[in-house]
Each structure stands twice: as structure tokens, then as C-alpha cells.
């Protein structure tokens, strides 16, 4: 396990970059065009990755880079015991912690990814999910 303290500078830098990027505008279309929603996201709330909290965007970046992750359980199998995500064989889904400012533990926020590129966000410890388009 990598101590959180050792990763703190990297997480802070990621958060700073995310905050700076969120203040920039490309001047593009800001409409809510949801026509290209993948089948795995149908029937649930959908958000663009850019709409997630800064900490979630940093977690997505760490996932894309393959870590290192600040929490021991990051990358572990997510069992989907709640049955809210599409059914797949065990091991299809992995979970990652999204830090919660002010929380003394892992908090309730997670990113769950699937083998086929599916990405989900929960801020209520698996009681609900939002499909994340990337």
C-alpha cells in the first residue's frame, strides 16, 4: 500500500489542474445532446467526465495512468451485489476511491469501471450510479 501522505503532492497537483481546466471554456456547444449514449448506460443518469467533481476526475486520471492509487482497496473487484449495474461475471468490475474532502476515511464516493470501458460514479456508496461518458 502506498501511503496517502506520499501521494498527496500528486493528488493536489491533479486537483489544481482539474480546477484550472474547469475554469477554461472552449466556446463549444454547451447543449445537452445525449444521442450517442452507449447501451451499458441506458436507463440510468448520464454525465460527461468533465461534469464530475474534481476529485473524481483525478481518480479517472489515476485509473488511466494505472496508478499508483492512494487506497489499498483501489482496483479491487466490485461485486455489484446491489444489482444496479448490468450483470456480468465476477471480476468484470473494479472499484476506485474518490477522495471526499474533510472525510477521515474513504468516504462514500467511488468510480467503478468495467472491462469493456464502462465507467460509473457513485457518491452514495453504491445506492445509485451515474454512467460516465468519456
TrEMBL record:
PROSITE patterns reported in the protein's UniProt record? PROKAR_LIPOPROTEIN (PS51257)
Pfam families in the record, alphabetically?
Ribonuclease
InterPro entries per record: N1-like, Ribonuclease/ribotoxin
Protein's UniProt keywords contain ATP-binding: no
- What keywords tag this UniProt record? Hydrolase, Nuclease, Signal
Q: Where is the signal peptide?
A: 1-27
Taxonomy, superkingdom:
Bacteria
Question: Is Transferase one of the keywords UniProt gives this record?
Answer: no
Spell out the coiled coil positions from the record. Answer: none
Name listed for the protein in its UniProt record = Ribonuclease domain-containing protein
Amino acid at each position: 500500500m502506498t501511503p496517502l501522505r506520499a501521494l498527496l503532492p500528486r493528488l493536489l497537483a491533479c486537483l489544481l489542474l482539474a480546477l484550472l481546466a474547469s475554469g477554461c471554456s472552449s466556446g463549444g456547444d454547451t447543449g445537452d445532446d445525449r444521442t450517442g449514449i452507449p447501451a451499458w448506460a441506458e436507463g440510468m443518469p448520464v454525465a460527461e467526465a468533465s461534469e464530475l467533481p474534481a476529485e473524481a476526475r483525478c481518480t479517472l486520471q489515476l485509473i488511466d495512468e494505472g496508478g499508483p492509487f492512494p487506497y489499498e482497496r483501489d482496483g479491487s473487484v466490485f461485486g455489484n451485489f446491489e444489482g444496479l449495474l448490468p450483470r456480468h461475471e465476477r471480476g468484470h468490475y473494479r472499484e476506485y476511491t474518490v477522495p471526499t474532502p474533510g472525510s477521515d476515511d474513504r468516504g462514500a464516493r467511488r468510480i467503478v469501471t468495467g472491462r469493456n470501458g464502462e465507467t460509473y460514479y457513485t457518491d452514495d456508496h453504491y445506492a445509485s450510479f451515474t454512467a460516465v461518458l468519456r
